[in-house]
Automatic annotation (TrEMBL), chain A:
Sorted UniProt keywords: ATP-binding, Nucleotide-binding, Transport
PROSITE patterns, alphabetized: ABC_TRANSPORTER_2 (PS50893)
This protein's name: ABC transporter domain-containing protein
Ranges of residues in domain ABC transporter: 2-226
Taxonomic source organism: Aquimarina muelleri
Gene3D superfamilies: P-loop containing nucleotide triphosphate hydrolases (3.40.50.300)
GO molecular function: ATP binding; ATP hydrolysis activity
Lineage of producing organism: Bacteria, Pseudomonadati, Bacteroidota, Flavobacteriia, Flavobacteriales
From TrEMBL, chain B:
Membrane-crossing segments per the record: 20-36, 42-67, 88-115, 121-143, 155-181, 230-253
Protein's name according to its UniProt entry: Cu-processing system permease protein
Keywords: Membrane, Transmembrane, Transmembrane helix
Length: 235, 260
């Protein structure tokens, strides 16, 4: 579904991605991990065509994404920081995105699930960070696309919404979707992901499931396993 | 593109600034017409205001709009939309709403005054057309500046400098060079110099139509001699069109390569 070959990205003199090769050909939940500045967001934005790679190619559903835009119909993206036009109302934002992407009825369910109905007539600028994130989640999940990309989905969510989000992600997985997640919350990653892709200094350092990671690093605990990779490279 | 245009336009129509801009022209037009009672004088005064103010508002609003809607743009970029259509849609939305404020703000008092019964109707329409051209030109230039500068403050700085240069400094340099090289034939040079500045071009265009030789100045006179009135009008309108086309093309090229 997603094939990335030899991807390089340089911002001015800052080499962020230095040859990423990644093939994801089945459904499931893939966690993209890595320390700050390892290029997680750049990788995601390259897949979305927001960042234009210096070198290398990306294919989504068998099609090269260069100079292509229709492929984004197959991707739902949850951006890291939910920033919306401030003088737009929540309802209007939903309506607008539906106008752009096509109609759907899933939004009603999601609004119900995250208890957003009292906020529908409020302006986006007046919402709290957590509520904005909920709006963001509704926007992402209301279209039934085969690829889901979630950049730090848990930011600002209260425990109940977090549980609902996890359920939602699992439900989407059962539909056979490919879900890419970045997160710094290791317990969340451990609980939800099928496979780990660990980025380090612009390259993929490790790919496999959590058990493999534990045996490779000889650590009994997932959080320590990740930490040990970082320690080894920082030392 | 039309969807983006629609939403940008609606968004701007709800903004306070569009109304302030509209009310300003409404007031200006009303005061000039009803206190002055001389249509052609009012048109000349309006021309002087429009030629300086429209570029200023176009650049400042353009830069401000781009930076303020950055988050929204990022949201749109992740949707199945062409980059061209996002940026051109926003550009057209902004230019159209500014043009609308201008045309309605000035148009209403003139209609109330009875412009349709007067023979100044063409002079007046030309004034509005030039104002619209200037809005589109300077908004496009502002989008170019903000696309090239990540830093808001820098972007604002360049935008103000651009306006200052084209509205004031350019004329100064131009005049100085005419005085300095007065021993040489300067016809071609001054023609060229006028074409390179949309503000000068608009002024010449309006004065040619109004046929006020006293205000034409040196370049205007050369323009008139060289092209004659009607051909001069066509040439200067064409040049204004080129002035919209080139920055717009650069918006397309630049936005295609940009990282967000």
């Amino acid at each position: 579904m997603v094939v990335i070959e030899n991807l390089h990205k340089t911002f001015q003199k800052n080499k962020v991605l230095t040859g990423v090769d990644l093939t994801i050909d089945k459904g499931g939940i893939f966690a993209i991990l890595g320390p700050n500045g390892s290029g997680k967001t750049t990788l995601i934005k390259s897949i979305l065509g927001m960042v234009i790679p210096t070198q290398g190619s990306i294919q989504i559903m068998g099609k090269n994404i260069k100079n292509n835009w229709l492929y984004r119909k197959k991707i739902d993206y949850l951006p890291q920081i939910a920033n919306f036009p401030n003088n737009l109302r929540v309802k209007e934002l939903f309506k607008m995105i539906k106008d752009i992407r096509g109609n759907t009825n899933t939004d009603q369910e999601l609004i119900e699930l995250f208890k957003l109905s009292p906020f529908l007539n409020k302006k986006l600028g007046n919402l709290s960070g957590g509520t904005k994130q909920k709006v963001n989640i509704v926007l992402t999940f209301m279209f039934n696309s085969p690829i889901l990309i979630l950049d730090e989905p848990t930011t600002g969510l209260d425990p109940i919404s977090l549980i609902r989000l996890k359920e939602l992600i699992r439900k989407e997985k059962t539909k056979g979707k490919t879900i890419l997640i970045t997160s710094h919350i290791m317990s969340f990653v451990e609980e939800i992901s099928d496979e780990i892709v660990f980025l380090l200094e612009g390259k993929i350092y490790f790919r496999g499931n959590i058990t493999q990671l534990k045996t490779q690093t000889e650590q009994p605990n997932f959080e320590h396993a990740i930490a040990s990779i970082l320690k080894n490279t920082y030392a | 593109m039309l969807k983006i245009l629609k939403y940008s336009f609606y968004d701007l129509m709800r903004s306070r600034w569009s109304y302030i801009y509209f009310l300003f022209y409404l007031l200006l037009g009303t005061v000039l017409l009803f206190l002055n009672n001389d249509l052609s004088k009012a048109i000349i005064t309006l021309m002087n205001v429009i030629i300086i103010l429209v570029p200023l508002i176009g650049t400042i609003f353009g830069v401000m709009y781009y930076y303020n809607s950055k988050e929204f743009t990022e949201l749109l970029l992740a949707q199945p939309l062409k980059r061209n259509s996002i940026f051109l849609g926003q550009y057209l939305g902004l230019s159209l709403s500014l043009t609308m404020s201008l045309v309605l703000g000035i148009g209403i008092p003139f209609i109330l005054y009875g412009i349709f019964k007067s023979d100044s109707i063409w002079n007046f329409s030309l004034l509005l057309i030039t104002g619209a051209f200037l809005t589109f030109i300077f908004t496009a230039l502002a989008f170019n500046i903000s696309l090239s500068n990540e830093n808001k403050i820098k972007g604002f700085g360049y935008a103000v400098l651009l306006w200052l240069f084209l509205a004031i400094i350019y004329d100064g340099i131009f005049l100085m060079s005419l005085i300095l090289f007065e021993d040489y034939p300067l016809d071609k040079l001054s023609l060229f110099g006028t074409m390179l500045n949309p503000i000068d071009l608009s002024r010449t265009l309006i004065l040619l139509k109004l046929d006020i030789s006293a205000l034409l100045g040196y370049t205007g006179a050369v323009f008139k001699k060289f092209f004659g009135t009607s051909f001069g009008l066509i040439v200067s309108l064409f040049m204004l069109f080129v002035w919209i086309l080139i920055p717009t093309l650069r918006i397309i090229v630049k936005s295609k390569k940009k990282d967000f």
